[in-house]
Specification:
The protein is α/β, with parallel strands linked by helices. The chain has one domain: Aldolase class I (TIM Barrel, Alpha-Beta Barrel). About 40% of the residues lie in helices and about 15% in strands. It contains 12 helices and 8 strands. It has an 8-stranded parallel barrel, surrounded by 5 helices. Helix 5 crosses helix 7 and helix 7 crosses helix 9. The structure holds 2-phosphoglycolic acid (PGA). 2-phosphoglycolic acid binds next to strand 8.
């Protein structure tokens, strides 16, 4: 299926810090990163997703910055007896713009099902938070030749019932689980194939325009030395970066390696 080249799509590079950094480390990172970002001349949106406990300090430190704030999770209920959980409204009140939903670590370690992921996506979007929806296959699924089946199931479950308008506030991150934190990134070709496939699923669910406008990030061992190659694939519109986003200079190198050009 042919789509218009992705030059018009929004490019997004996001840092997923996972369970790392206290408030002091967060402030230190942001002041170093703000300095690094001063000379960046690339039309990409940069998002930093600290843990919940550091969101407030991150928001304060990012006030003068173009860098957007993201959270790593949310609950799908508005409020109530859900010990340990955080609602969309709480995130909004902190100035959070994006929220990661359905990360494989949430699915794997915290039992998040496709159904829970779908509820979180809907709650985030109806609360004016932009969603970074994660999808990806395990190594045994890839080896078993069911990568596309898994991606299709995850994407269809998470996006069912959304409108084209909702889709304008949603980004998909393709994150093959075997590449996360392993140092073994997908090849640019593997990433491109998966992204093009996800785009075709979205075209089938919505239409070609929605699919063509959808930002699809790649995540899984993105590093300063492999980012440019991955990001130069036609359907790769950004990156979701874990380990290599924990140091300001390394994350800045990834942002600076963006091949998207000044008018993308
Ligand atoms: P990684 O993590 O860059 O450390 O592989 C990516 C992610 O889990 O989002």
């Amino acid at each position: 299926m042919l789509f218009k080249r992705g030059n018009m799509r929004k490019k997004i590079i996001a840092a997923n810090w996972k369970m790392n950094k206290d408030i002091n480390e967060t402030s230190d990172f942001i002041s170093a990163f703000n300095t690094e970002m001063k000379d960046i001349d690339c039309p990409i949106e940069v998002v930093v997703c600290p843990p919940f406990t550091a969101l407030y300090v991150a928001a304060k430190n990012l006030q003068e910055s173009q860098v957007r704030l993201g959270a790593q999770n949310l609950h799908f209920e508005d409020d109530g007896a859900f010990t340990g959980e955080v609602s969309a409204r709480m995130l909004q009140s902190l100035g959070v713009a994006y929220v990661i939903v359905g990360h494989s670590e949430r699915r794997q370690y915290f039992g998040e099902t496709d159904e829970v992921v779908a509820k979180k996506v809907k709650k985030a979007l109806s609360s004016n938070l932009k969603v970074i929806l994660c999808a990806g296959e395990t190594l045994s699924e890839r080896d078993g030749g069911v990568t596309e089946k898994v991606l299709e199931r995850q994407v269809k479950a998470a996006l069912g019932g959304l409108t084209a308008q909702d889709m304008a506030n949603l980004v998909i991150a393709y994150e093959p689980i075997w590449a996360i934190g392993t140092g073994r990134n997908a090849t640019p070709q593997q990433a491109e194939e998966a992204h093009a496939f996800i785009r075709s699923v979205v075209a089938e669910m919505f239409d070609r325009d929605v699919a063509a406008a959808l930002t699809i990030q790649y995540g899984g061992s993105v590093k300063p030395d492999n980012a440019a190659q991955l990001l130069s694939q036609p359907d790769v519109d950004g990156a979701l970066v874990g380990g290599a986003s924990l140091k300001a200079d390394s994350f800045a190198k990834i942002v600076k390696s963006c091949p998207f050009g000044k008018t993308a």
